[in-house]
Amino acid sequence: MKLLVTGITGKVGTSFLPAFLSEERFSGWSIRALCNNRVIDNPAVEIVRGSLADTGTVRDAMAGVTHVLHMAAVKESPDMAIDVGVKGMFNLLETFRVSPTAEQFILIGGDCSVGHIVHDYEIPITETAPRRAYAGCYALTKVIEEVMLEQYHIQYGLKGCCLRAPWIMEKDDFRFALSFSEQFGGPPWREFLSEADIARHAKAGAIPLMRDSLGHALKRNFIHVTDLVAAILVALDNPVAHGHLFNIAMDQPIDYGQVTEHLQQTRGVPVVEINTPYHSNWLDNAKAGHLLGWRPGMDMRQLVESAWTHVRAEDDPRIVWYPG
Q1: Count of domains observed in the chain
Q2: pLDDT digits (tens, 9 = 90+) for 39-76
Q3: Residue 22, domain member (yes or no)
Q4: 3-state SS string over 19-61?
């Protein structure tokens, strides 16, 4: 068996690789990575250099491959969105479709395809919910990727699945997602506060309690990278996954009210309430539990504590590949 991975140098890829290599079930497999701007240095990984938009490069990368794990993505980069999110996906699927060795295609999707906190859903968001991307080229390309994979299954019987993940956390990510000084991801605080207020809250070490459009504490979906990697390993080479879309999220969305209460009680952190136009949504993960037997291992308290107690080594600088 030979696995082709795109996006192996990113957050999920760098966590997936050691987990995959240590999994006894995949001990006889080989792994190849298609890299463009960044290259991983691991003797266990064969590297093919080039762009997903180049048909010849994709053809070379796919030679002899049985399984594909497609994680490569760009955020709000209109100049690259079509090359990676549309042309790249098409090249991978077309090459995979006609390959004599191809067995399974796994796509890592995102809850931006359903608009996460931007669009309102009255009930939990299941895999049958309509796709309703928010504004921007990134969310658009994630919808296109999901639809392309779905259509290749319908039109050609391609054996593949999509693991749709919300905001992916690792190490101290969640602490910085709630920071007024070195914010990771969004929404940007300047949309709701003046620069003077942001600086004042940063100096105080405060955290935000965002409220949704109804005035309740905002609930937003997250997944820790270790839980997403566990889902990938469960889905990989699993015939039960073929033709399915799975929401891979925590059992419950993160309630910002519960987070701030926990941090006030455990660390005395000051809290700033922020009214937002966003909606509290619940990404339902029941299907992945039912069909794949996957369950997330991390709950709210564990996510918070892991982020607040994490100490980075000197050789592990904080890198944000793109805004969250």
Answers
A1: 1
A2: 888 999 999 999 999 999 999 999 999 999 999 988 76
A3: yes
A4: HHHHCHHHCCCEEEEEECCCCCCCCCEEEEECCCCCHHHHHHH
Tokens describing residue 322: 């793109």
Would you mind telling me the total number of residues written for the chain in this entry?
324
Can you read off the two tokens belonging to residue 188?
């940007």
The rounded distance, in Å, linking the Cα atoms of 270 and 204 is 7
Question: What is the pLDDT, as a whole number, of residue 1?
Answer: 97
282-303: pLDDT as tens digits: 999 999 999 999 999 999 999 9
pTM of the model: 0.95
Which residue type, as a one-letter code, is found at position 29?
A: W
**Within a domain: residue 46?**
yes
Q: Could you tell me the two tokens for 78?
A: 């209109």
Distance CA 2, CA 4 (A): 7
- Classify residue 240 by its DSSP letter: G
Residue ranges making up the domain that contains 48: 2-168+221-250+283-296
Query: First vs last Cα of the chain: how many Å apart?
Result: 34
Q: Give the C-alpha separation, 142 to 73, whole Å.
A: 9
Among residues 109, 115, 145, the alpha carbon closest in space to that of 133 is found at: 115
Those residues whose C-beta lies under 8 Å from the C-beta of residue 320, and which sit 6 or more positions away, are 184
Those residues with Cβ within 8 angstroms of residue 170's Cβ, 6 or more apart along the chain or in another chain: 11, 15, 224, 225, 226
- The verdict on residue 240 lying in a domain is yes
Is 205 inside any structural domain? Answer: no
CATH code of the domain covering residue 29 = 3.40.50.720
Tokens of 130: 């309509």
Q: What is d(CA 322, CA 296) in angstroms, rounded to the nearest whole number?
A: 25
Sheet holding 104-110, edge to edge: 45-49, 30-35, 2-6, 67-70, 104-110, 160-165, 244-247
Q: CA-based angle 147:251:180, to the nearest 5?
A: 90
